[in-house]
Amino acid sequence: MRSRSRSCSEMSISLSASPSPAEREALRLPRSPPAAAPPPLVGALIESLSFRSCGFGRAASSAFEKEDLRLRVALPQRLRDALHAALKARDPSAGAFALEEAPGVGTAANPWFALAPEDAPENPLVAFVNPRSGGRLGPVLKSRLQELIGEDQVFDITVVKPSAFVEYGLGCLEQLADSGDHSARSVRNNLRVMVAGGDGTVGWVLGCLGELYVQNRGPVPPVAVIPLGTGNDLSRSFGWGASFPFSWKAAAKRSLYKAILGTVSCLDSWHIVVSMPEEGEEQELDLPHSLRHLGECTFYDDGTAEGELSETVCCFDGVFYNYFSIGMDAQVAYGFHQLRDEKPFLASGPLSNKLIYAGYTCKQGWFFTQCISDPELRGLTNIIRLSIKKMDSSEWEHIPVPSSVRAIVALNLHNYASGRNPWGNLKPEYLEKKGFVEAQSDDGLLEIFGLKQGWHASLVMVELISAKHIAQAAAIRLEIKGGQWRDAYMQMDGEPWKQPLSTEYSTFVDIKRVPYPSMIISGADR
């Protein structure tokens, strides 16, 4: 898929039929910036020149870059006010007052004005920051981003939800654009989004932006990442790094430049629906923000169900981008998240978070499964029936779950658990023997593998061995029968939850590919 960013050569082609030199000069004059503002090519000069070699010094270089960045991304004040008014009122039309100050609206404007609106930024950008991510770095990073691109364009994700921004903020820009505001149209069409947080936060924003496809409200803004989580596997996969560096002030500015200038890549996304018997337990579910309740729904059994089906079923759904898992690893992640919520001062950074993860793995008995009689530490084959659909097939195929497997992971990217590759780099002979294909992030397939117990998972994580390969699938159905299991632990993209199980009826997890791609900006371009 082509990047939405336009190169200089493309711009010159699109303007090849521009008006005469006199008309161009007439257009340029009223839009000339104030005398104190730097020329429009200052960004290119900053990128190509070494200020130290020119004798400017570090302070002058930083000042030039900061001013250039602000000029590139800052929305006009009237549009910023309109966005916040729409968000506050939860009504896209609350920002209609911005139309009164829009250049060219209601007058006989030159037709070429629509190609280059007077007050539209070259690279409009907004940022979402999760203050709970990155230990104590989230709030200070938010302040740094506000300093660089403006307070009105940086949102605390716990205050302004991405879904609200999509519905009311982008809806406001769309209404202004439909009313003839060319600057609002330019901002809406060229907008990019920076997300500072972990994989779960990035997935949350991507999922909300994906609703624009469903509502036929394109284009969908692409997303850049500042990695503040523990694993940061999505960030690693697209060149944004494993963690945010100690020199975070300079890194924030570099990340913003990458966000506005980087190329756009495609990423498969996967829709998950959990159908559970309606017995009142759904009221107790504490779901991640990336999942939503659908209420009572109808479950269609097409011959794969083996256990009893409840007459009434309630459902919840969501979208993931990297992985879904059930079992051992999800239980460890759930314990960590519970601790972080209760004692946030302990989870102060990626290193301490990983130590806590290791401690929970030991505490919950995953290294001593053979010596513990708890039925919930036994293999998943006791409760799970796995069915898949292969590429270009409409038929479900039952796949046996190895008896030793205590965690099942469906992986979309090459990175899992802080950059590990548990699927491994498989040889062509092995791929042919197993009927697999080489794994890609946009191939429409999930790699399904298993982890046996703590020792096996540890060896997989240090990449001494590969995980237990189970299947590659274009769609997945898990039937979960409770029995002695009271709960099953699940997670997607690092966001875990505890799923109650019925002793009488089955719970179903259905996963299928979303028919449209998600857009990620590459962080490895500059």
Folded structure, characterized:
With 526 residues, this protein is an alpha+beta fold. 32% of the residues lie in helices and 20% in strands. The protein has helices spanning 8-14, 21-28, 42-48, 57-73, 77-89, 137-149, 162-178, 182-190, 199-214, 233-237, 248-261, 328-342, 350-363, 428-434, 454-461, and strands at 125-129, 154-156, 192-197, 223-227, 264-267, 270-277, 291-297, 313-320, 323-327, 384-389, 397-399, 407-411, 446-451, 468-473, 475-480, 487-492, 495-500, 507-513, 518-521. The strands form four sheets. It has a seven-stranded antiparallel beta sheet. A six-stranded antiparallel beta sheet has the order 14-13-12-9-16-17. It has a four-stranded parallel beta sheet with strand order 2-1-3-4, with helices on both faces. Helix 4 packs across helix 11 and helix 12 crosses helix 13. It is globular, with a radius of gyration of 26 Å. The model is unreliable at 1-56 and 368-373 (pLDDT under 50).
